[in-house]
């Protein structure tokens, strides 16, 4: 992406629809991927699963304030914006190329009035503290490197305490049986409800007319503040 040009960009198209709905009721999103081997430059399998969930929840997304953490190419955030949400896209403050990816995806889909911010997990920055009221926080595959888990939960817990009625919708790929977020959930007084993939049509290797998520084992969860004592898990 030398000089900020577009030479290494290729568009990947996703069309979200439901089998029991009219074929006219669908959403097509074009996501520019930068052909470089960096985390935030292309669509990950978890992003398609989360975007599918957003599509099925589109009626409750209208007018909601949504923040996507670690957005990368921002497929879920763009889908939320296309469904009528007021969206803020964020990625690492130290990764300007990822922030440009967010802007590029917005331009490719005619999405306007989306704010793009550099937010680093675990950093209590002014931009994090001054975020407006949020209803939904999104994160696809933010639980990739166990070294980052604590920082992710720091940011999520801070935002949920600031917005007690908000929810954190996240998808993650189970890459190892040796790690778990259960202890971190308890430490930060958060509870987690698993959403079965078959409940929103994501229990298959291809979604949105794409070859993703493939055969990866992906989980969809909704994280909320507190309530751990009520038995939600």
UniProtKB/TrEMBL annotation:
Which molecular function terms from Gene Ontology are attached?
methyltransferase activity
What Pfam families has UniProt attached to this entry?
Answer: Methyltransf_16 (PF10294)
Q: Name one GO biological process term.
A: methylation
Superkingdom classification of source: Eukaryota
Q: Which UniProt keywords apply?
A: Methyltransferase, S-adenosyl-L-methionine, Transferase
| Entry keyword Membrane | no
Q: SUPFAM superfamilies of this UniProt entry?
A: S-adenosyl-L-methionine-dependent methyltransferases
Name the InterPro entries for this protein: Methyltransf_16, SAM-dependent_MTases_sf
UniProt keyword DNA repair present? no
Gene Ontology, cellular component aspect: cytoplasm; nucleus
Family (UniProt)? Belongs to the methyltransferase superfamily. METTL23 family.
PANTHER family according to UniProt = HEPATOCELLULAR CARCINOMA-ASSOCIATED ANTIGEN, HISTONE-ARGININE METHYLTRANSFERASE METTL23
Question: What name goes with this protein?
Answer: Methyltransferase 23, arginine
Where does this protein come from, organism-wise?
Takifugu rubripes
Task: Point out the gene that encodes the protein.
Answer: mettl23
